[in-house]
Every structure is written in structure tokens, then in C-alpha cells.
């Protein structure tokens, strides 16, 4: 179908406001191809089926809407974890605040350095997974990112990496518009944990392409910062080799608009992908709109996938879940599970979901569930009868509700950190 | 008979496979009636719309209504969002109106009726007494009835051939006639309600139907009346290259009740035929409608040649408080099924239910489901959908559950299960869930293990396996729904009951 003229105009307006970073050789080709992809599909508009529940206009308009800086007096998350810190300020790598990028069993390079090289392994990945993820559903914001991303890291794990690599995104400019693109390769038998935290920018467009070789192991834990006015559109494209394991968890505290897309293809037999997310939305400090969009493709035998998404919404917060399990012909013995649940703490909050299954193989076990409702009054009564004040009891039930998603984090130190953070947030909220 | 060249895997019993084979491999109603027909010229344009209106002796307001719809239709585009693949339909290469020549004047006695038309109904298995009435015989209504009464409105291609038990229904105050008759005899009711549930601007196929519908059924149940018998419409497409566009309008006034059944068949043809129907149900306070469908249009052959393209818009508007509507559908036919019987739960405490069994085999494609729009307080809805795919068929459940901000304390439960037989077919689930208040509870499940836990426990504690127990419970449910169907559907119903849903996937 031809792309509507209004969409083309929108796309050209956005492109003209951007400068493509100078690259050469393969990198230039990758960017040019991404730009051609983007022009062919056009930026998303509200009428697009894939954007039915989220208005993309503030993500596509030429200038980023301003986002007031949030003064955060909380200790940074993952502060107690021994990790290698890589700091980005408004989407720009800051070597002064970052640790030395040297670590055994892993090489870490800056994207701009990699792109300046004539030959680099990343040429097989940069924009490649993103391009593959454009079908059957277009993800124009990711193509935009591949074409114009100004910074990012390229990580290659060749063995068991001893400590997590931690990407810290600081936000210092209320009008910053950042596009960051990372490439991660986990070689056969290697293992890597990637942490991400912080609001990043007033408007953040992030693409991470992750390729797991056979028997690779990848863990991802992300928190998206507490700036109420920030906007983010993130895409993770992952391709999983045989027997590889992928685990991702995202905690979202606040933000006017967040759209997190996961595009995962299980292309080797016996691979496993777990994607989880928890969002605590409060519309009191401004709008809150959080959209989890997940597309998992089973293209090999005996693979397992699991999607666990929990949302707690209040004061007019909006939660969106669009999840899909696609089982290709021949992907027999697939085990696909998907659950999306939301707890609406008041009459004003909204939950919109589209949990899809598309199955072309007969010997599979796929299921999905989705529930929406208020807090369980019986459980609340039980706690109150035992002397727990109503607000504390509510928070206890909220924590219990979210815990199924947090349980997807394998590393107990990290899951404890997430739980502590949640308790802190809820506690501070109670005290006003 | 098209064989299912597939291995039967564990968890699917042979009986299920054979039943599905039996159902779609042999199409019992594929014969055609060789009868002289009057056709309108091929294609659709304003003149055709006027002609159909003229043939039905319609008043001017009705003609204008149709023309307005046609004008709108010309500006619309065919929807593409369904998971259906079919070559572009040439709307100008088919007939929009076809009537048996013998129906030009209503036959006065059995001797006058075209024997071919009579034979058609006999062959379709409609009881003889009713058959006489169906063929348009006056006076047959006074014959003694045997067993349970089912009043039938039979639509043959573009026209209603006859409606049975009209006199007896009239005594109860029930109006049951063809829609063309209703437009002439009861214009005040038609004017008030036609298009009030499915407006002429609704969607591509409904708008086309609004412009060119040739006949259909009309029902009005007065306040407080429980319809003394089941009402039924039997749709038969016979003519080649002819589309059928029927319109059904049912109005259940305050505190009334009616059970309505719908069946359809068509001959085997090499080419695809279009069927675009609109069904509107209006429910006032405390009214209840049960609407059951056995859709058995010709599904096409194993290679996907021929078969009906079935694009249907069905919607119930629960306007009154405490009104209740129940859609039950058994979808076994059609090459393409595009159908979403919906409930607008506007009245407080109104209820909507949707039970569906969709079977797709060979090259059939079905994209079907429901919409439950909760507007009133304490409204309830329940969706149970079972999809079975075999051969190279694609079966999609597509549904919407929407809880509006004012629909406080409402409830929805949705369960959709699919079964795949063979590795070349597909089963898909596309639910939309929109919740805009927190006192309502919405649950969507697609796991066989979530069949009522108490019933499961009961069966399991008596030594049944989980699969066996699930099959028993699901079959028990199906039997209950299918028993409500009239006798002409009994054959299909019995076969369907035999189908177990073991090894289901969401």
C-alpha cells in the first residue's frame, strides 16, 4: 500500500532536522540503507494499527518536546553492584565519568570508532537485525535510529564476563534529543550481563541489536529513570542461536511516554527467551503512558519463550501491552507463554492490550492470559484486619503483584536491588 | 472426498480427525436446483439499486436510504486488516438480484408451485408441512403440526420464498415476515430501527448490503411476549455468479423473548460467490434474544476452487436495562469467513454472550470473533471461542472487549482455544482488550487447563486424565449450546458434538 503523503511529509520534516553522522564504507552504506527503509515505510502515525494505543506524534515531530530536569536525591540504582560503568550524558558518551573500558573476555568500543574502521565484525550486525525486524511489522523509529544514531557502544563477549556492563544515561539538558545505537555480540559459550539505567534525554531513541551465538547467555536489566517529562522509544532486536538464553527485565517508574519494543527471533533449536517488565505509573505528576510491545518469532524447534508484563496504574496513567508469539511452520515443540496483567488503582487509569498468537505448527503449547482489575478487596481486608494500614497494605499487594515479573531476573543481587527500589518508591509516595 | 494426509499426533484422537474430515470433505448440500431465474443485469450501480428497490415495491424513503448507502460505498475501501488472503473481488462481475421466475406471482396452491422449488426444500430436509408453506402455499398453516414448531422464513437467492406459521405468530402479536414485506406493511418499525444498530456508514460490506440487500427477515416481538415458537431463516444460494445480500432486523420489545435460528447452504460452484449480510438486533428493557447460526455455505474444494465469500456484519444493541443477548455460531462452511457478531451493552445490567465453534479445513480461511462493548453499569459478557484448523486452513479469532469509563462494576470473561490438525494449517488469536475503569474485571484466557477448576477437580478425582476431563467438559458445554438448534441442523450438530478439543493451543 502506498504511504500516505502526510506521512511522507512528516518523515521528510524529521529527516531534514537531522544531520547524518559522517561515516565511510560499510557504515555509510548501512546508514543509507536504513534511510531508504525509513522513507519506504514513513514514520508512524496514530492511524497505524501498530500505534493504535499510543500516539507517536511527540516521538516523530522534528523537535523534542522539552522535559524539565528531575532532581533525584535517591542513591543511583545498581550502586552497590560491582560493574563497569559507561556513562552517556544526553546521549553522548562521557569518558570522564566512565570506567576504563577494559575487561577480560569482552571488548567494548565506541560506535563512532567502530564505524571509522574499514573492517569490523559489527558490519554483520549494525542495522542488520533491525532490518530483519522490519517484517512483518514496520518499526520506522528504529530505522531512523540506524540512519542517524550519533553514539553508542559495540560490545563483544568471548567468554564469561565477570561483572555486568552498566550503561548509565544521564539527562542534563531539558531539550536534548538523543539517538543511541548499541550492538552486542555474545559468542558461543560466552555470558554477559548488561545493565541500563537513567532517563537519557528529554527524548530518547534507543536501538540495541543483540546477537547470541549458539550456547550464548545474555542478561539484561534496565530501569528507565524517574524524570516525569521524558519520552523514550526503545527497540531491542535479538537473534538467538541454538541453546542460547536471553533474559530481559525492564522497570519503568515514570515518564510522559515510553514505548519499549522487543523483537526477538529464536532461530536456533532449544533457545530460550524471557522478556519481563514492570511499570509503576502515576499520572499525578503529569501524564504517564507506558507501552510494551513485544514480538517473538519461533523459527526453530523446542524453543521456549516467556513474556511477563505487570502494570500498576493510578491517577489517569495509561498502560499498553501489545504482545505477539509467532510460531513459524516447522517450529515444533514450541513452548510459548505470555501474561499481561494490570492493576488499576483508581477509576481514571486505563489499560489497553492486544495479546496475539499466530501459529503455523501443530505440536506446540502456546498460551496467553491477560487480566485487568482493581486491587483484591478480600486480600486488603485480610491485611487491614491484622492491623496493617490501608496504604501500606495496598503497597504490599502491589509488590506481590509485580513480583512475578521481577522473579524473571536470575541474579539475586540485581533482583534485590530492583525490589528495594520499588519499596523505596512506594514508601516515599506514601509519605507524600 | 478430500483426505487429510496428515499423521495424527498424540493428544488428538482419531475420532476428532475423522469427524473433521467427514464434515468438510463431503459437502452434502452441493447440488443445485435447475430453475428458471429472473436476473437483474450484472454489476452494481445506481440503476441496479433502484431496480432492487422497485422489485421489492419499496416506498421512496427506502430507495433514498439505499442510494445514500451506495453513494457512501463508492467512497469506501475494502478492509485489509483481517488475516485473509483472497484475490481481489470484482464487484461488477456478478448478479445482485436473482429470483425464481415462478415467484414473480405468488402461487395459490401446491399444484401451482414449481416442483423444482418444492424438491429443493425437500432435499434440504425441511419438514414437509413447512415445505408446503415455504413454497408459498396459502392455507397450509391450518394443518396440524407435529412435534416442536419452528417458523421458517426461507430465502432463495434474492427473495423470500415464504414464511411459515405467520397466522399463529400473529395471534401472539409477533410479526415474522420477510424484510421486503415489513418495509411495505410495517414502515414505522422499519424506519425507526433499520440502520440504527449497523448504520449505513458502518463498514464496507455493511454499506454495500445497505445499498443492495434484496430480502431477509424481520421480527418484532411485542412487550412482555415470549415468542411461542422458535423462529428461523434458511438461506439458500442457488444461482451462479450471484451474490446474496440479506438483511435481518429483530426487535425485542420490553420484557420479550425470542430464539432465532439461521442456516445456510449453497451449491458447489467453480467460482467464488459473495455473501454480505447484515443482522441487527434491538433489545429494549428486560428483553432477551438467542441468535444461533449454523453456517454451512459451500466451502470450496480441497484446492480452494469455488466456495462462498462470507462477509457478515452482525450486531446486537442492548438498549434496555437488564436485556440479554446470546450469539451462538457454528461456522463450518464458506471459503472465506469474515464475521464478528457483536454486543453493544448500553443498558445497565445488560448481558452479552458469544459462543463459537469455527471449523476450517482444506483451503478455508476464517477470521471471526466478537466485540463486547460495555457502556452500561454492571454489564456482563462472556466469550467462549473454539477454533479447529485442518488441511491448509487458517483460523483466526479476533475480538474486542471494551470497558468504557462509565461501565462501572462490569465483568468480562474470555476464553479462546484452538486446535490444529496437521502441520500446514494455522490458528491465530487477535484479542483487543481496552479497560477504562477499575471496578470492572476483564479476564482473557487461552489455556485448556483453565477450564472451570471445580469441574476439572471433580473429573480428575474420579480418575480421568486431564485431557479427557477437558474434552468432557468442553463437549458438555457444546452439547448444551447445540441442542438449541432446530432439526434441520441436527446432523451437523451431532457431528460437532463428537469433536473433542484435546491438545488445544491458545
Q: What is the overall shape of chain B?
A: globular
**Oligomerization:** heterodimer
Structural class per helix/strand content of chain A?
alpha/beta
Low-confidence stretches of chain B: 1-11, 130-147, 447-451, 494-506
Count of helical segments of chain B?
12
Across the major sheet of chain B, the strand order is: 4-3-7-9-11-13-16-19-21-23
Helix content of chain B: 10-25%
Quickly count the helices of chain A.
9
Tell me what you see in this structure.
The complex is a heterodimer of chains A (432) and B (506). With 432 residues, chain A is of the alpha/beta class. Chain A has one domain (2-374). Chain A contains nine helices and 19 strands. Chain A has a ten-stranded mixed beta sheet with strand order 2-1-5-7-9-11-13-15-17-19, covered by helices on one side. Chain A has a nine-stranded mixed beta sheet with strand order 3-4-6-8-10-12-14-16-18. In chain A, strand 1 (84-89) and strand 2 (92-93) form a beta hairpin. The model of chain A has no long low-confidence stretch (mean pLDDT 94). The radius of gyration of chain B is 22 Å and the shape is globular. Chain B has 506 residues and is an alpha/beta fold. Chain B has helices spanning 14-25, 46-55, 60-74, 115-123, 128-134, 166-171, 179-185, 187-193, 204-212, 453-461, 466-482, 490-497, and strands spanning 37-39, 98-100, 150-156, 159-163, 175-178, 217-221, 230-236, 247-252, 257-265, 272-283, 288-295, 307-318, 324-331, 336-339, 342-345, 351-360, 365-368, 371-374, 380-390, 394-403, 411-421, 426-435, 441-445. The longest helix of chain B is centred in the last third of the chain and has 17 residues, at 466-482. Chain B has a ten-stranded mixed beta sheet with strand order 4-3-7-9-11-13-16-19-21-23. Chain B has a six-stranded parallel β-barrel with strand order 12-14-17-20-18-15. The interface between A and B is large, with 36 and 39 residues.
